[in-house]
Amino acid sequence: MADTNNSVISITSRFVEMIGKKTLFVLESIGGVWLLLVETCRWIFAGVFGRRIRLGRNAIITQIVRSGVQSILIISLVSGAVGFILGLQMAPPLDDLGSVELIPNIIGVAVIRELGPLIAAIVLTGFAGAAIAAEIGTMVVGEEIEALEASALNPVRFLVVPRLIAAVISMTLLAVIADAVAVFAGLLMGTMVLGLTYTTYMENTLAQVQTVDFVTGLIKAAVFGGLIGIIACYNGLKVTGGAAGVGKATTNTVVQSILAIIFADLIFTTIFYATGLA
Question: For the chain, percent helix, then strand, then coil, each to nearest 5?
Answer without folding.
Answer: 90, 0, 10
